[in-house]
Amino acid sequence: MTDVLTHPGAAPADRSLAARLMSGGMPAQDVVVIAAAERRPDGPFAQFRRSMRERFQAITNVGLTHPASGQAALARHDLPGRNGLPALSYLAAGDSAGRPVVFIHGTPGEASDWAPFLRRAPAGQHRLAIDRPGFGRSGPGAPVVALPEQARAIAALLEAGPGPAVVVGSSYGGPVALQLAANHPDLVSGVLLVGAAADPVRERTHPAQRLAALRAVSSLLPRPLVHSNAELLVLRRELEALGQRIGRIRAPVTILQGLHDTLVPAENAAYLAERLVGVARRRVVLVERAGHFLHILRSTLVEDTLRHLLAESKTPGPAPAALS
């Protein structure tokens, strides 16, 4: 991972979370800390302000602007629903015969969240960004809250054409990517998690979310927020079930995590690293003074990390016996 290790501001992995990972058996070369370029006050008020800002941005996207992107043309495609699976809409760019990379958005969100990454598709790559079931142009009209069902829909897309892919998941898209890798290992050659939720203990709901789920209230809200709230209300249960299957993942996994993430606390990275015991390789990149939206605010680092994952991941071999 040379480019990340020599990234401006890179520092020895000696912070407390990094030390915990290494004490748990991770090789030092697989735990990287990207140091902050500047030091700022970090008292309780600053932490509260960050928390409020990230929650506001997650709903409104205010203040989240992608840097200038490439010139690859985007094409919209739709996979019809079949066998009980919803119709799936997605954007694609790059070489249709190239190596597939699938991007999975968070909640709420849609395929266009990843459009700058698709426009930067390098030669030899076929980049796809999906509208997860229940979002964007994908069906159904009702929310799909079960992670295995979301994974099945994406698996159907990969089986229909692109084939085995490196999968990138941000925020809620992270557990969807993990579920896909655990349940359909023959379709996943690598996983990049960006601020991914994973630890069920850290998922809590607010009374306002219960209120928003009432029909009298939800009928007044935009569809993406209604579906997002439905997902988050049961996410703890879904992550508990996913935790029983994470150990089955074999493809290499890289975890990219902002240490100032207030939506998905950095401890999620440790939870994952401790459970990804069967992967070909696990790597953790911790970013100081960085929050939740790394794929927008630190997109160059995400691209660097993805490039290294692609270099070390291979197309998976024959699928093992069917998983129960």
TrEMBL record:
Single GO MF descriptor: hydrolase activity
SUPFAM superfamilies the UniProt entry points to: alpha/beta-Hydrolases
Membrane-crossing residue ranges in chain numbering: none
Annotated GO CC locations: membrane
Domain AB hydrolase-1 as annotated: residue spans: 101-296
Keyword terms: Hydrolase
Record's protein name: Pimeloyl-ACP methyl ester carboxylesterase
Organism: Actibacterium naphthalenivorans
